[in-house]
Amino acid sequence: MQKPADCPCAHSAHADAFKTGSARAAELKLQPKMAACGRVPLILLLTSQCLCVFLTQGLKPAANVNVHPPVIAINRQLKIGASNPKRTTGWKLADEEACREDLTRLCPKHTWNNNLAVLECLQDRKEETEIATDCNHLLWNYKLNLTTDPKFESVAAEVCKSTISELRECADEERGKGYLVSCLVDHRGNITEYQCHQYITKMTSIIFSDYRLICGFMDKCREDINALHCGSITTGEKDLHSQGEVIACLEKSLVREVEQQDQPHPIKEDCKKAIMRVAELSADDFHLDRYLYFSCRADRERFCENTQVGEGRVYKCLFNHKFEEAMSEKCRDALTTRQKLIAQDYKVSYSLAKACKADLRKYRCNLDNNLPRAREARLSYLLLCLESAVHRGRMVSGDCQGEMLEYRRMLMEDFSLSPEIVLHCRSEIEAHCSGLHRKGRTLHCLMRVGRGDKGLVDSLCQNALQALIQSADPGADYRIDRALNEACESVIQTACKHIRNGDPMILSCLMEHLYTEKMVEDCEHRLLELQYFISRDWKLDPVLYRKCQNDASRLCHTHGWNETSEMMPPGAVFSCLYRHAYRTEEQGRRLTRDCKVEVQRILHQRALDVKLDPELQKRCMTDLGKWCSEKTDTGQELECLQDHLEDLVSDCKDVVGNLTELESEDIQIEALLMRACEGVIQSHCHDVADNQIDTGDLMECLVQNKHQKEMNDKCAVGVTHFQLIQMKDFRFSYKFKMACKEDVLKLCPNIKKKVDVVVCLSTTVRNDTLQDVKEQRVSLKCRKQLRVEELEMSEDIRLEPELHDSCKKDINRLCSAITFGNAQVIECLKENKQYLSHMCHQKVFKLQETEMMDPELDYQLMRVCKQMIKRFCTESDAKNMLHCLKQNKNNELMDPKCKQMITKRQITQSTDYRLNPVLRKACKADIPKFCQNILNKASDDNELEGQVISCLKLKYTDQRLSSDCEDQIRVILQESALDYRLDPQLQLHCSEEITNLCAEEAAAQEQTGQVEECLKTNLLKLKRDACKKEVLNMLKESKADIFVDPVLHTACALDLKHHCAAVTPGRGRQMSCLMEALQDKRVRLQPECKKRLQDRIDMWSYAAKVAPAEGFSDLAVQVMTSPSKNYILLMIALAVCVLFLVGLLCGRIIKRVTRELKDR
């Protein structure tokens, strides 16, 4: 190449030539300062570009070029501060034969006199337009001479004289080696001198059109260009003006190398730096990225026509339209490559590097000595570092935050910008997510795979997804996630319109409306996919992080973790926080109030889906597959794990147990249950629901109001399920646990099941009560809560597992149509007691025995008679509630349903004295005295079918019972006389007779003794001796007390009042009074009474014949109750007197005979 001759006016001429160059150059504004890189002589790629704008005086064409241009004359005088430039004639590109035809065809005539304008016109021609090879070569040689001549530096020194003096770094550079121009390019953002800035900017565009003109680039990347077949470094082998493709090829290879581990030709480190430096230096003006410029020229006109060149504005505009349908594929690919380079080094984005430069320095984001420089420059690292500063409440400039938002959105839109995902998730994308590249759809598809909705995912892919979500931080602004934004737009407009657009609480609002009518299916899927990853890093919820960072540092020791640390276990911090959220003051350190509110919010959201709890999903993965694979509906998985609590592996059992224990304290964590129960909460539990601290009150209220009209099926099922889960461990009942923890440890150690603990404690309480100990072993607060638990358990047979398991087959056989709850199944079993299996029968008997001792545990009785108890028994003790109701049973104000329920309980009591605590206590001495033979045959858990009570009835007629026992038997006799169902022995032995002879009376709704009267009337028709004996016993009992004969008592009520008012009831006294009145002709009884009395006398006479006295006592009773009692007694007295006289007479005779015999 021929050296250009000295030319005195070369500098000024060429500068002037530049000034009058293309109009496009005048549009360029001052460029921001680029980050300085290590200075290597002539390495600063092109831009260090030794921009030699001067007059090249000779160009020697290559051998294959036919044109021989003359020595170049001065094209234009450089004008600096002069109004009239000096004109000088010289060599012009327009005069060269090689380019004349192309110039005439492509360039306006007014540009022909300016070599640089001609050069710009020809190199920026339309893509489909070709120029001659000789012209190509000529232009390249011209540009090469410009950039390699030492005088180029002297031109820059003169044009930028004042700028160099201001930039000390550039003024100190050694001259003659290209360092000065490199320094000016690096600091071009700080150049305020107009002509210097124009000069540097203009010459940059010349150099970037061909990689070989970038000083040092060819030397560093020669081997890689050849190895990767990215182009030719031999002149003439390729279109010289398409050499931007060489850099584009290298850039694609660099990106591919990061995405694929098995590259056959890895790019050398020096070339990598050179490639990234070229990308960095072309960041402000998209014209400088020649490949992208030519690929997107038409798209720029289509989408960004009004966007000014400079400061990366055209890049950003094209990025925003990347997924438009009208965007060409070639441009989209070029944009994607540039975005991938930005992901590798944030400085490739001019606007981001400029806006965040001060913040990066302020928060020391590039000073981590533990990380390699390549990692430190990554876009993800920059975002993580600055996001953590924002989350901590530090000030990050608005411009920087705006840029961060753009690039976070960019990462979420296109998964391919994250090389780790491309590398590690390739198989998942091919298997599940092909064809979903645009607008973040692939990423959300991968998130769904990561959730486990489409099978297992590789751990490296899972980690890559988590890292991307951490970098993009969509939790801070949902708009970053375009797929979510589009899917949930309608929900946000309706359900969350009260929240400011872009507020982090938008995501929380969406979660609150998950599975509600306002939620749409697509939004639901996108939301759960994103929340799955947010839940695994507490920093991704900015509100939680801001409110709880101090608590986390204080309680969970997170200060040892770097904000960008990848070693933090998923969900570890939040698990620590919620363990401290519900501690009492006695238990030690607690969360601050603001942090606890946020922890509760997150817990409420996580309860919606088991996959939102990282610890639960990790430890229970096997059990979920084993027990709950078919439980896929909302909330079913956790319920399934709780149902199989005993079967879970220990790790899973612990975490499910801890979560259930937490729910027992704050049931509002169960968001789905709270939604289902909203009506009943508003009506009956709003007071406790509004409390900041729940402590189990809300669940207790829901249980108590479980059968209110506002209670719907979903709520009732949810409440019952939680009650059933509580049976598995007493810790799951918060109030019970807190009230009885010490008592359980002392009295019931090693017992975990709640039902067993309740039985243990209640047995202790009962024993202490029966023994009248001075101080109960169970504390008062525990006894109170124990009562609540016992009452709750009585409502549903499933809450008593032992009873339920014993009667499961009987329930299916006898009560399959009965729904659980409201004690209906228990009531069904009681009514079908005679058909129960032996085991179930025993359990039901034990239950009835407990209920009779403590009627408050009889759920059905207390429910049906709730109002009557308030009316009649407000002052009665809970244990005497049934006794009180029985006393008021026939009150005209008694509710019919309650009356019917009382009768049922009386029937139950009549079957066994053990089911009647009052009778049992009153006859404690009489029962073993008179009925021991029956007791000897009895078992502890089966009814005696009324045998003991029948025994006591007979002794009552004999007047041999103690006064207390006699009073109770009298009541029983009176009750059974009105309702035959209260006499089990009568029912047992006379069932056929009742059906055949007294069917109409037995069918009567109100029993007033009609069946008993029917049997007495038909005494002669009774065939079975056992039934006849029972009826005769009834007659015998009626002689002992008229109250036992309700028909007779009703008929003779007035006569009793008139004639026997002074007679004390009992022991047959009033009956004897009426008999005497019947025989007294002076007394006129009521016709009905007279008739009934006569009938009774006939019956008693028949009874005496059919059933003669079995002993002296029976005979005495018959005499005393006989209408001819006085006559019989007189006759007996006369007989005794006669016997006495006869004995006297005989004694005298015997004495006289004896004396006579002695005398002889």
From TrEMBL:
It is a single-pass type I membrane protein. Cys-rich GLG repeats lie at residues 130-192, 266-326, 395-454, 518-585, 590-649, 710-769, 777-837, 893-960, 1022-1082. GO terms for molecular function: fibroblast growth factor binding. The chain crosses the membrane at residues 1127-1150. Signal peptide: none annotated. Pfam families: Cys_rich_FGFR (PF00839). This is Golgi apparatus protein 1. It is found in: Golgi outpost; Membrane. Keywords: Glycoprotein, Membrane, Repeat, Sialic acid, Signal, Transmembrane, Transmembrane helix. Its main location: Golgi. The keyword Glycosyltransferase does not apply. The lineage of its organism: Eukaryota, Metazoa, Chordata, Craniata, Vertebrata. GO terms for cellular component: Golgi membrane.
